[in-house]
Design a protein that fits this description.
- The complex is a heterodimer.
- By secondary structure, chain A is α/β, with parallel strands linked by helices.
- Chain A has two domains: 2-217, 3-Layer(aba) Sandwich (Rossmann fold), CATH 3.40.50.300; 227-266.
- Chain A is built from six helices and 15 strands.
- Chain A is globular, with a radius of gyration of 21 Å.
- Chain B is globular and about 65 Å long.
- By secondary structure, chain B is mostly helical.
- Chain B has one domain (7-226): MetI-like (MetI-like fold).
- Classes of the chains: A alpha/beta, B mainly alpha.
- The A-B interface holds A 49, 51, 77-79, 81-84, 86, 88, 90-94, 103-104, 107, 133, 147-148, 150-151 and B 119, 121-122, 124-132, 139-140, 143-144, 226-227.
Chain lengths: 273, 227
């Protein structure tokens, strides 16, 4: 169980505000943090991790005080057993994929086994000898996730982990994330702007605005289906397809299929406010 | 071309001075650069100005004040001489201290820029993995700023090779003790031994060129490897 009330000054486009959030997370819960930029989502995540210092309040995780202003308690970030995935992934460029994981797992019993298991789980075994610069965005994301799990944390914090990826990669990683959340028995806090992603993954969503909680509750189901059926009218040059949609309209998309094939198109839902 | 009689001795001394200055400044400059790159203190501009002073001061000014500081005419100098038994004027350790001051910005500035260039999330990611500051510095930060490290070391070395005014003030021209190549050139020209001055001068040109070519070659390779 994670129980906190944290405040910190925010510098938003609308002027100075105060981030003030009080929340209790149940063990095993996956909570999405959502809201416009500048709402304080990343700041809240950094306060939980101890990367920034709150101005007042408390933070208790499984009965242990990580921070308590009244009692002057502060657990430094290095000693908080959690996994953190940064928006820019923050992989160590001087280390290969395997070395990134080994560095993270070092100091634990059976570290080589942990590394091998994580490589396997996130389908990174073939990429193990590569450096981060030689990986695609989705691959880097998987390494960042594996690295965050190497210390066997009970709490996983993810700062917009999938925002920079294309839709098919994002869908694959959402599935991986859901599996991992279950399998590792994690409590997860995820920042996301994508209603479909939130609906697919989260038990609860916390909407922030200008540092305050606007809504806490179950995720709203997005209004449109995530895929739509279509028929390939023609195969165009450069890997493009002309596809007819159920309503009669035709769109050009990239992909591989033959004329006349029935195909499913993934639909990206534009952000609704 | 006839080599001057004390050519090898002078060259050895010159290289010893440059190498010891570089090694010591790597050790002293790293914490200083780390602190300057990360501090939020309002006194930072003051500290940066102090570190950069040797860039703009004539070397003779540094030499002059150190000469006074090390002599028995000041309280500090008397403390060094009487309490610690350190007579630094006109000795190799004396000019070594002088060149540490003189070359300080050439080490600290590239290292400071190197630290600033690294994304903060690298440090934070290491902290999130439970790593201490020292482990983070050694395993994550330094390996990712090798070009900056090399830049600082090479510039310090090359700059110390060419040091003249400070050594002349503080060390004079004692063969085998303080007479480095740049001083020897000046002495030989004063005595109209152009041939011998040329031997030293040509050596310095060749050394400086080789060092810089090596630096740029390595920097290019390192950049290609990391990107």
């Amino acid at each position: 169980m994670i129980d906190f009330h944290l405040t910190k000054a925010l510098h938003t486009a609308a002027g100075p505000r105060t981030l003030d959030v009080r929340l209790t997370l149940a063990p095993g819960e996956l909570v999405a943090l959502s809201g416009p930029s500048g709402a304080g989502k990343t700041t809240l995540l950094r306060l939980l991790a101890g990367l920034d210092r709150p101005e007042s309040g408390f933070l208790r995780v499984a009965g242990q005080a990580w921070y308590d202003d009244a009692r002057r308690q502060w657990l430094p970030p290095q000693r908080r057993p959690l996994g953190f995935v940064f928006q820019d992934y923050a992989l160590f460029p001087n280390m290969t994929v395997r070395e990134n994981l080994a560095f993270a797992a070092s100091g634990q019993p059976a570290a080589p086994q942990i590394v091998a298991d994580l490589l396997e789980l996130l389908e990174l075994t073939e990429l193990a000898p590569r450096r981060p610069a030689a990986l695609s965005g989705g691959q880097q994301q998987r390494v960042a996730l594996a690295r965050a799990l190497a210390r066997r944390p009970r709490l996983l914090l993810l700062d917009e982990p999938l925002a920079a990826l294309d839709l098919p990669t994002r869908l694959r990683l959402q599935a991986a994330l859901a599996t991992i959340h279950q399998q590792f028995n994690l409590t997860t806090v995820l920042i996301s702007h994508d209603p479909a992603e939130i609906a697919r993954l989260a038990d609860r969503v916390v909407e922030l605005e200008l540092g305050q909680v606007r809504r806490v509750g179950p995720p709203l189901v997005p209004p449109a289906p995530a895929t739509v059926a279509g028929r390939v009218l023609a195969v165009l040059a450069g890997g493009q397809l002309r596809v007819q949609l159920p309503g009669g309209a035709a769109v050009t998309v990239s992909g591989v299929a033959a004329a006349g094939d029935e195909v499913a198109l993934a639909v990206e839902i534009a952000r609704t406010l | 071309m006839n080599l001057p009689s004390d050519y090898w001795q002078t060259l050895r001394l010159t290289l010893a001075l440059a190498a010891s200055t570089t090694a010591l400044l790597l050790v002293l400059g790293l914490p200083l650069a780390y602190g300057l790159a990360h501090t939020r203190s309002r006194l930072r501009p003051l500290a940066e100005a102090l570190v950069s002073m040797p860039l703009v001061l004539p070397p003779t000014v540094i030499g002059f004040y150190l000469l006074l500081a090390f002599s028995d005419s000041t309280a500090f100098g008397r403390f060094l001489i009487e309490r610690l038994g350190l007579s630094l004027n006109f000795t190799f350790p004396g000019i070594l201290v002088g060149s540490l001051v003189y070359s300080l910005p050439f080490m600290v500035q590239p290292l400071q820029a190197g630290f600033r260039q690294l994304p903060r999330s690298l440090t934070e990611a290491a902290y999130m993995l439970g790593k201490s500051r020292l482990t983070t510095l050694w395993r994550v930060l330094l390996p990712n700023m090798k070009p900056a490290l090399l830049n600082g070391a090479v510039l310090t070395f090359a700059h110390t090779l060419g040091e003249f005014g400070m050594v002349l003030m503080l060390g004079g021209s004692l063969p085998g003790r303080t007479r480095v190549a740049s001083i020897a050139i000046y002495d030989e020209v004063q005595s109209l031994h152009y041939d011998q001055a040329n031997a030293y001068a040509l050596t310095l040109v060749a050394l400086a060129f080789a060092i810089l070519v090596g630096l740029y070659w390595f920097t290019k390779r390192a950049a290609a490897r990391l990107s």
